Fold:
Amino acid sequence: MGHFSISDLEQLSGIKAHTIRIWEQRYGILRPVRTATNIRTYCDDDLRRLLNVATLCSRGYRISKVAQLSEQEMEQAVIACNDDANNYCQQVHALMAAMLAMDEVQLNQLLNGSIRRMGFEAAVLHIVYPFMQRIGVMWQAGSVNPAHEHLVTHLLRQKIMAATDSLPAVRPADVRRWVLFLPEGEMHELALLFMNFALRSRGHHVLYLGQNLPIDGLAEVCQMYQPHTVCTVLTAVPDRTQLQEFVEELRQVCASATVLLYGPVAQAESVVLPPHMVRLQMMTDFLAFADQMQEAVAEPA
Structure:
C-alpha cells in the first residue's frame, strides 16, 4: 500500500494542496493518518477517491454533493460523465482510480470509451501515454506494485494487438519495409507494439520480431529481408556501459538500413551514433518519421 504526502497527492491529481485540505476538513473526503512526528500520510484509497472527486468536480458536480456519494455511486458517475474526448486529464484520472481499485472491468470500459471517441492512435498519445507516465511516478512513490503494472500492461497489450489485427494486410513489394525488434534481454514491449500499429495503419510493411531477439538473429533477417528501416526500443537494456558497443554492432548488422533508437536507455548523451542511426526522444518523433517515409513513397518518380 502506498503512503503519500499531501504534495504527492497534489502532483498526482492536479488538485492544489490547499483545496485538498479544505475538502478533507469540511467534507471528510480523505482520511489521512498521522506519523509519529504528526505528519499526515494518505493511502491508495485516499488517492483513488481524490481522483474520482476531481473528475466529477471538473464536470460541474458540487463538492458537497460528491462527498455524499458512496464509493460505488462515485465510480458509476465517473464512467457516466467520462465522455469528453478533449478532457484528457479527466480521463487519465479515471484510469488511475480504476487501476488502484484493481477494477479490470472499469479499466476496460474507460479505455474503450476513449478509443471510441478519439480513435485508437489519439487515445494512446493523449490518454495512455500520460497514464503510463503517472504510473511511473506512483512506482517511485511506492504506491503501485507489480500486480497494478501487470494488470494495465496486459490490458493495453490486448488493445494494441486487437487494433493491429483489424488493419488490412500490406504487400511488402509495394512499400518500404520495416523491421521492429527488442534486443536480447529487453521485455518491455508496449511502445514497440504501438509502433507496429502506427506503421501498419499508414500502409507500411512491418516484420515484427518482438522481444528478446539476439543480434545474430537480426543479422540473418536483415540479409534476407533487406529492410529500409530498423527500429528498436531500449528501456532496460543494454547496460549503459555497453550501449556504445551495442549501437556499433547494430549498425554493422543493419548496414543498408536506417536504424531508429527509442527509449530511455537510448537517450544517453555520451553515446556517439554511427551514420544513418537516429535517436528519437518522443513517440511523436517516430510518427513524424513514419509520415515522412509514407510521403516519400507516395511521391511520383
The first strand starts at residue 33 and ends at 34.
